[in-house]
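Quick start: load a record and inspect it. Here is STAS domain-containing protein:
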Amino acid sequence: MRTSPLRSRGSAGDLDFSTVELFSARCEREFDSDLVVVELRTAHFVALCGALTLENLGRRAQAHGSRFRIALGGGVTFRALEVAGTTERCVCVTPRRAGAPRLRAGVVG
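Running the structure step on this input writes:
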């Protein structure tokens, strides 16, 4: 499990673990939901999210229910995702299950 932030680069800006933690807490408060960022690997979902802001993520999470994805990766640009369609490494944050740790994040791929 990696603890240092992984950042996505590109027009959408940066998103790191602390932002994910804030988003998780905000989802629970405002949307009565557990963590909804799952694992974003496809350019399709990158296009869906647009700008990576908490407000936008919140709206998208609400619109897509409990399954929402966001593209993250060490040195992975959104342009590369568009070309390749997937990332080799991405942050994977899974929904919290009863009795599980509050946040589980790591590198997959």
